[in-house]
Write a sequence for this structure.
């Protein structure tokens, strides 16, 4: 024990006390900071959970509205009512939720480059590959690059290990710096296209707004009653070499306000005279929408949440196929 009469020992004791006080202050400060961080994280987690609950509720409302829309006119779905892309705002405690509904079938279905129901028996569908190649070329991609990307997509999804001309199977991906294998299954999300050989970042960014991954291998179900003039490449791709984007855009701009009543009426249009679509292409044109896209953005205080979903409305009631969440409004 230090002798209080020794000045040197008294100084050492004081220094020791000051060091202990400093250490305790640092520990206390760190503990308080962590408590404050934990409190904020708990609060943020609660706010995010609340926002997600509001988004789910908005999604259910949109699904019910889609059911009403398809039931109102079983024969066809048009742009009547201004539902396509129109923001629908719903006030929620402390914020707002905004839902938008789009035609989820007016896109190129990436899974249409194959046919078959079982993942063990997915075979390349040449007409689907041709349509994807045509879409890429219509968007400005070089013909050779477009062919490679289209064949690479087919090889990525089909069940066999035999590459298409210009395509790629496992042996190609095995040579990458970070090797991987083909999926040999249907795509679930369009972002998977980035992994396909021949699809450069530039090509993906260009084609991203035009593609989707429907849970079927059907050829892209284009609803001629809801396809917008700005989406003309999606119709022109059905007849590569026969119909230009400009012609397709003009055709869509001249569509009757109440849409077409039958596909026979549509293909009999004078502006389509002389064209010879294959039977499966003619049947690819629809009057109804089977899949809808829904986006719900929620803003509650400083918390923002966005939910995106694909709704299957081919049967009643409409059902949720898949959804994803992200930040931002």
């Amino acid at each position: 024990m230090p002798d209080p009469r020794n000045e040197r020992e008294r100084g050492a004791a004081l220094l020791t006390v000051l060091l202990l006080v400093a250490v305790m202050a640092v520990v206390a400060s760190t503990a308080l900071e962590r408590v404050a961080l934990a409190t904020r994280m708990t609060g943020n987690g609660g706010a995010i959970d609340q926002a997600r609950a509001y988004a789910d509720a908005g999604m259910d409302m949109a699904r019910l509205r889609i059911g009403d829309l398809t039931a109102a006119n079983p024969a066809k779905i048009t742009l009547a009512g201004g539902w396509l892309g129109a923001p629908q705002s719903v006030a929620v405690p402390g914020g707002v939720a905004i839902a938008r509904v789009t035609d989820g079938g007016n896109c190129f279905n990436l899974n249409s480059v194959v046919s078959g129901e079982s993942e063990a028996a997915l075979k390349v569908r040449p007409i689907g590959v041709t349509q994807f190649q045509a879409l890429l070329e219509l968007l400005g991609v070089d013909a050779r690059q477009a062919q490679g990307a289209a064949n690479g997509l087919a090889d990525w999804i089909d069940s066999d290990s035999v590459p298409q001309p210009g395509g790629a199977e496992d042996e190609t991906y095995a040579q990458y710096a970070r090797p991987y294998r083909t999926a040999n299954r249907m795509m679930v999300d369009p972002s998977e296209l980035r992994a396909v050989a021949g699809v450069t970042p530039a090509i993906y960014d260009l084609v991203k707004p035009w593609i989707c991954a429907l849970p079927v291998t059907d050829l892209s179900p284009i609803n001629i009653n809801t396809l917008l003039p700005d989406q003309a490449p999606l119709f022109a791709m059905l007849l590569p070499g026969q119909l230009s984007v400009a012609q397709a855009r003009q055709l869509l701009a001249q569509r009757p306000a109440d849409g077409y009543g039958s596909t026979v009426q549509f293909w009999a249009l004078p502006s389509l005279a002389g064209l010879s679509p294959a039977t499966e292409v003619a049947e690819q044109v629809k009057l109804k929408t089977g899949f809808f896209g829904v986006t719900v953005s929620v803003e509650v205080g400083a918390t923002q949440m966005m939910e995106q979903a694909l709704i299957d409305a081919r049967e009643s009631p409409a059902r949720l196929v898949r959804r994803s969440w992200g930040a931002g409004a």
In short: The radius of gyration is 29 Å. The mean pLDDT is 89.
